[in-house]
Amino acid sequence: MKALASVVAVVLTSGAAVAAYAAFDLAATAKPTVTLGNEDVLEGVPDVGAIEGGVNLLVIGSDSRAGQGTGFGDPDEETAVLNDVTMLMHISEDHSHVEVISFPRDMFVDVPAGCTDPESGEEVWEQYDVKINSVLSYGGVPCVVKTVEQLTGVTIPFAGVVQFMGVAGLSEAVGGVEVCVAEPIEDEYTGMFLDAGNHTLAGIDALQFLRTRHGVGDGSDLGRISNQQVFLSALARKLQSDGTYTDPVKLYGIAKAALANMQLSDSLTDPTRMVSIAKALKDTDLSKIAFIQYPTGYVDAGVAPTESAELVNLALQNDTPVSFDPAAAEDATFTSSGDPNTTPTEEPVAETPTEETPAEEPATDAPAETTAPEPTQQALPSDVTGQTAAETRCSAGRTLADQ
């Protein structure tokens, strides 16, 4: 039935001439999937066209060297399976806004009960105050999903985990991404050396740009998150400007790359569902695509969510778009828009409310207005950093002399 659905979808979007090839090619490409246990929320979701309703999708970057060759250290020696990248993408119900939340790898979280050891298959105990990047090895992909669900208060029916070479493959599938570098990036750990200016990155170069920590900002994981947001915002601009979301051939290529390079949840087994999620983004204004660093503060040996994290959670739960405090951009030390070849797009400024003319007194028999209007935007405080896809920012590089 899944193969048949794939054929039908490809016929409708790409033409009958390539339908059979596409169906068998995608089926042969796919990796084994993982069951999250909450797929029932997707019953009734259509297979063709932009997906109806909202989407919550968790992207997990694993640092496992298994199957990655010897270019990232000895796979027999470096055997940890850590989710050093954990990102939640939320597409709103009406597809008018998108939030991508990056969770720092050293953030302390609670792990709920009901997780299963990925090695033994046995249920494991809940945990308290453990670093989020340890959850993948403790309970696998479903446990990372459960942990982020508990943290944010939203249901996440879609998930995918990608390793090093998978990131390289996905960046090649989109044709590379042009990024801006304000100061030179020099990182001996990843082999990333970039001069100031604009660079189109694909394959291993894109991977190392996303991995580099020592070569950007203050050398911390928080600096790396900001660097990743520079890349992702540039990617969002590229996909819209290239017309990728309306091009079935390009979408097919990306779906194939995802199937080949990621371990996906059962909910993403059907490539037509991936295409339908991508199509939901075709009309989203770039200024309404927000990349948010989950707000944390330093504690002993790591970071912990601050009170502002609850505002991010509420925005997700209420499906409300967010706006950044301009002071957050002024205080950010990990990005810069000072590249002379790039004109940054400023964050839209909220309109100043005009004075309201006093309304006439209602008639005595008229019902009084008792309900306040629903908020149309969640204003984030200055300790919540990030950017929109409409903003062109540059990576704040860090040379070897500064390390």
UniProtKB/TrEMBL annotation:
Residues 340-352, 364-376 have a biased composition (Low complexity). Residues 331-403 are annotated as: Disordered. Residues 353-363 have a biased composition (Acidic residues). It holds the Pfam family LytR_cpsA_psr. Gene3D superfamilies: LCP protein. The keyword Flavoprotein does not apply. Keywords: Signal. The keyword Signal applies. Residues 1-19 form the signal peptide. Residues 83-240 form the Cell envelope-related transcriptional attenuator domain. InterPro entries: LytR/CpsA/Psr_CW_biosynth, LytR_CpsA_psr. Residues 377-390 have a biased composition (Polar residues). Belongs to the LytR/CpsA/Psr (LCP) family. PANTHER family: POLYISOPRENYL-TEICHOIC ACID--PEPTIDOGLYCAN TEICHOIC ACID TRANSFERASE TAGU. This is LytR family transcriptional regulator. It comes from Agromyces bracchium.
